[in-house]
Amino acid sequence: MQISALLLAAISYNGSDTKIEKTMANFERLIRASLLTCTMLSVMITVLVVASVFSESMRFFSNIPWSDFLFGTEWSPQTAMRADQAGGSGTFGAVPVFLGTFLVTLIAMAVAAPLGLYSAIYLSVYASPRFRSWAKPILEILAGVPSVVYGYFAVITMAPLLRTGGEMFGLSIASESALTAGTVMGIMITPYVMSISEDVISSVPKSLSFGSLAIGATESETVKKIILPAALPGIVSALLLGVSRGVGETMVVVMAAGMAANLTVNPLESVTTATVQIMTLLVGDHEFDSDKTRAAFALGFSLFIMTLLLNIVALIIVKKYRERYD
Amino acid sequence: MIKLFERRRRITVQRIKKKKSPFIYKAYSKKPKHTWLKKRKVAERRFKAAGYIAILISSLFLLSLVWNVFSSGRSAFTETQIKLPITFEAELVEQEAYRKIVQNALMEIFPEVKTRKEKRALFVLTSRNAPYELKNLVEENPELVGTKKEIWVLASSAVSVFYRQRLLEESKRIGNINGTQAAWITQLAQSKNMRLDFNFAFFTNGDSREAEQAGVLVSTIGSFMTILICILLAFPLGVATAIYLEEFAPKNWFTDFIEININNLAAVPSIIFGLLGLSIYLNFFGMPRSSSLVGGMVLALLILPVIVISTRNALQAVPQSIRFAAAALGATPTQVVFHHTLIYALPGIMTGVILSIARAFGETAPLLMIGMVAFIADIPKSFTDPATTLPVQVYLWANNPELGFVEKTAAAIMVLLGFMILMNLLAIYVRRRYEIKW
Predict the structure, then answer these.
(1) Distance, CA of B303 to CA of B399 (rounded, Å)
(2) What CATH architecture is B217-434?
(3) pTM of the prediction?
(4) What's the complex ipTM?
């Protein structure tokens, strides 16, 4: 086979070397050019995302001063159709919205951080291979469940559960509370935090923990005093990435948190988040050119900036950490 | 007095510690060494238990989620039927007054019903779809006209919910069923005129205002159409970008810029892509609202960076020696990539692509933004027709206050999770079967 292929090549190369080389070079150039085009297209998409959201929110800020948006404490974007209509003054103070986002994310991290970290530590330090082989898939399944399913879970299971639980302690929990949304979001983020921190923990050089164990430290002392300090930057960045996911999460909060923008830090009350507001402002048939719809873009833009900053900070922390150990 | 003694002891212990004399140290310290060890062991056990409990809690959540979905979704796979003595009067069939036929049959079973209010309560026992079922039946079997036959007719969802829970709470008012209706249903059930049958309609129908007829076929087809567009766009673009960045791109500031861009794009919340779809695709290009075409394009943006990153990882895993060997035999750079590197990286690439498609399959928020919240009962005929997807359907049903839709939501989630699990299994299979460990 190969000999005949070689022969064939020899025959076809017969005398016309330069021509073939030329076509080969052209082909090469063509492939490269098309690959570069694809790359450019991908880059264009990133630029497009930023540009579209940015331009719309700039148009919003030309009507409404950004200081009102950032520091105003009243969010009621529905403008009244008629003068005598009740409610809806068309004010765009985003503080309650951001506060709600912050509150829900905080609750989510209060669930996800300990659960994710402890599971990661257990899996990478203590777990037997057999235990790992069934625990890891479970957490991976949790990570793969679509967020709309978590939303359903929050509404059908978590909200009644927390309400009856609250009643036992004499607390009245609203059916759409920050606590419900935050808890379920926390469950959702847990596998994400876990898988990143597990990677980080297992990338700490083994010699460090062996050294610690050799001088008589127990496993937990090794984890607390050696592994965690060494892995701290990576773990912090895992938590930051978890936060950025929580901030941008939509379906759980749309279904389980409220619509009304309350200026509160009480987790038992209903709060709203930036993603919920974007949804309520834009879903359905609306006229597109109004302050109301542009406000959604302004919220989207601030969301984008927030997640971008979180990711960049996480990236910087990890980079610094890498330099220390390689 | 004890305090004073304790303090003295501690001072002595410290003084002796400094001199490092184990014998006197042991003699003076009231705390023998093994209690310290015990403390450390307890701390160790506590720490280990905390990790174990954390995993247990996560598994418990998954378990309760699955159990919840299954226990409330199971009933959606059966439908409740009522046996009615239907008389196909020629005159009524002629007029296509099938509703009247059903009503007559109901009146025949319950002749005591006289007042208008009672009649209205009686007639909602059967589904609003029941007359259409009869119509189809007659069109298929014209010989039925003029005869009388006992036929199983679909019950309404409120009746269905009541019938299933009847055994638990005998005469309690459930949902929209009042006392008289409850009595009728009990009577029907006792005379064996009610039954549960497999609900084929759930797999062959689209969305419906009536819970008992709502199905997932239309949304599943919509999902597949959307995913098809998404793959067609994101797969070639993403893989090509990754190949260029990994194999051809020169190392300079521009490449770094692209890399940072794409990495950041992967972390952008999905709802932002919905904003982009709304402002660019719908308002700038004027593409059809809530179509699977636009949905697929939005999802393609969403998974593009994920595909790029996973493809790059797969390419990086191929050892340099393969590239050098191919180049040494005279292969051009493109030949090296397309004949060798890419082939070896293909299983890894496919795994990444399948997983990102699974992610796109479950995505809801950006699709809601581009208007995929409309009520859609018919199978979309083209990619520009209004469509809906499975997760969106779940969202719509979850928001429906009618009791009958709770089980439908759970059942749709079961279908959705089924697809997700299938895709994940496929990814695991591809990884296990084809991936090469270097």
Answers:
(1) 27
(2) Orthogonal Bundle (1.10)
(3) 0.83
(4) 0.84
Residue B177 pLDDT > 70: no
How many other CB atoms are there within 10 angstroms of residue B111's CB atom? 7
Pick from A218, A271, A269, A274: nearest CA to A69: A274
User: A121 to chain B: which residues are within 8 Å by CB?
Assistant: 51
Residues of B in contact with A39 (CB under 8 A): 240-241, 244-245, 249, 258
Please report which helix (H) or strand (E) contains residue B148, including its range. strand B148-154
Is B49 near chain A, with CB under 8 Å?
Answer: no
Judge whether B236 is closer than 8 Å to chain A, CB to CB.
yes
Of A159-163, B146-150, B384-388, the range with the lowest mean pLDDT is B146-150
Please identify among residues 53-72 of chain B the ones whose CB lies closer than 8 Å to any CB of chain A: 53-55, 57-59, 61-62, 64-65, 68-69, 72
Distances (CA, A) of A60 to A57, A287, A299, B288: 5, 15, 10, 25
Which residue spans within A3-150 are E strands per DSSP?
75-79, 89-92
Handedness of CA B259, B260, B261, B263 (dihedral sign): positive
Task: Render the burial of B309-340: b for 16+ CB within 10 Å, e for the rest.
Answer: bbbbebbeebeeebbeebeeeebbebbbbeeb
Both tokens of B165, joined, read 């829970």
Q: Of A171-180, A312-321, B46-55, B133-142, which has the strongest mean pLDDT?
A: B46-55
Q: What is the DSSP string of B270-318?
A: HHHHHHHIIIIIIIIS-PPTTBHHHHHHHHHHHHHHHHHHHHHHHHHHS
Which residues in chain B are contacts of A51 at CB distance < 8 A?
none
Are B283 and B309 spatial neighbours (Cβ–Cβ below 8 Å)? no
In the three-class reduction of DSSP (H, G, I as helix; E, B as strand; rest coil), residue A177 is classed as coil
For residues A116, A118, A124, A125, the Cα torsion angle rounded to the nearest 10 degrees is 180
Query: Residues A18, A23, A28, CA angle at the centre, nearest 5°?
Result: 120
- Compute the distance between CA of residue A312 and CA of residue A306 in angstroms, rounded to an integer: 10
Q: Dump pLDDT digits (tens) for B218-262.
A: 999 999 999 999 999 999 999 999 999 988 888 888 888 888 888
Q: Do B283 and A288 touch (CB under 8 A)?
A: yes
CA distances from B120 to A77, B107, B115, B180 (A): 44, 11, 9, 12
Contact call for B398 and A151, based on CB within 8 A: yes
Contact B358 A144 (CB under 8 A): yes
Helix, strand, coil fractions of chain A, as percent rounded to 5:
75, 5, 20
For the structural domain made of A89-325, what CATH number should be given? 1.10.3720.10
- Spatial separation of the C-alpha atoms in residues A216 and B89, rounded to whole Å: 93
d(CA A88, CA A300): 21
- Domain definitions of chain B by residue range: 2-73, 75-213, 217-434
